[in-house]
Design goal:
The chain is mainly beta. The chain has one domain: Roll (Pnp Oxidase, Chain A). About 10% of the residues lie in helices and about 35% in strands. The protein contains 2 helices and 11 strands, in the order E-H-E-E-E-E-E-E-H-E-E-E-E. The radius of gyration is 20 Å and the shape is globular.
């Protein structure tokens, strides 16, 4: 006997993001996309016909997230320090990653998709992430209804995988953490 499938729409506003290195930022993420993945085809020419074959390398788009900046700018500052620690060091004294270890320049993270009951349902796991861009902060005195300042951050990573929910053990979601 086959299992009955219950269809439920995937909601675009039911998600959470967690990056191990920057926990203060991730609970204030307001938007983000699961990046595209492509495997470029290999083109080969034969007499009279061009043939395409499946490629051999995955290409991942960047992970771009938008977050609300807190009044003390702690979340902005976390990413700022992370991104500035990665620049090319001219001398060994200039290379000072957090905690003094090169591996601390990278972090794993998860993009958690929630179901209609706001419970974790699917997990995209990102490996060896690091920021490559931290967006501008916009201020405007002509606005009468003040809005929270938001900022974009762009990450590169080695790969991402769709993982089962049981990989979330020990990971808190926004409903479990007070803002």
């Amino acid at each position: 006997m086959s299992e009955q499938y219950t269809y439920d729409n995937l909601k675009n506003n039911a998600f959470a993001v967690r990056i191990d290195r920057i926990p203060q930022t991730m609970f204030r993420v307001v938007s983000g996309d699961i990046p595209a993945i492509t495997i470029p085809a290999v083109e080969t020419s034969f007499p009279g016909v061009d043939q395409s074959f499946s490629g051999t390398k995955e290409v991942f788009e960047d992970l771009i997230l938008e977050f609300i900046v807190d009044v003390d700018m702690k979340n902005y500052e976390e990413i700022y320090h992370w991104i500035t620690q990665q620049k090319y060091a001219v001398t060994p004294d200039e290379f000072t990653p957090k905690n003094g270890k090169e591996e601390d320049l990278y972090s794993d993270g998860v993009f958690i998709i929630m179901n209609s009951s706001s419970n974790p349902h699917r997990v995209f796991s990102f490996k060896e992430m690091f920021p490559v861009s931290l967006g501008s902060l916009h201020f405007d005195t002509s606005i009468t209804d003040a809005q929270p300042v938001q900022c974009m951050v762009t990450f590169k990573y080695s790969r991402f995988e769709l993982k089962p929910i049981d990989t979330l053990k020990g990971v808190q979601t926004p409903s479990q953490v007070a803002p």
